[in-house]
Amino acid sequence: MINTTLANWDGNIVKLTWKPSKVLPDEKLITSVHGYCFNEGNILLVKIKDRGFNTPGGHIEKGESAEDTFHREALEEGYVNGKVTLLGYIEVNHEDNPLYEPDGKYPLVGYQVYYRMDIHEILPFQGDYEATARIWVEPDLFTNVIDDHILHRLILEEALKASNH
User: Which InterPro entries does the record cross-reference, listed alphabetically (predicted)?
Assistant: First the structure.
């Protein structure tokens, strides 16, 4: 199965490669942390202002670990807590991106880390942060709701295999 694709991010062509792993990449090169949150077999998706539905996630704040970041993002965007399992990461490679800025905020090769969360607490949705709504989606319908690219399917497969049930 294909685990590498090209993406156009605001005119920047980047190579994205999914790498299942139980070990984090170099934490200094992690640009964001995301996850697939499960409750009763369904996946949590959050509607982010101006971006549509996605899995909870975001940038690491000073002093946070990748796992701490995911817990915070799941709580802020989805209002959920739970046990997490590292699934792996997407390598984001700008080596062939003619618009890459070496002094910009992203490394030439960086990483987006992905976790699975088995939810044990669901809090009332408040919409206090970037998320304006949350929904629960059956895994078979996941790619009907989220902006699909091949890597989302691969990460979902990894998340389903990592079930703690």
Answer: NUDIX_hydrolase-like_dom_sf (IPR015797), NUDIX_hydrolase_dom (IPR000086)
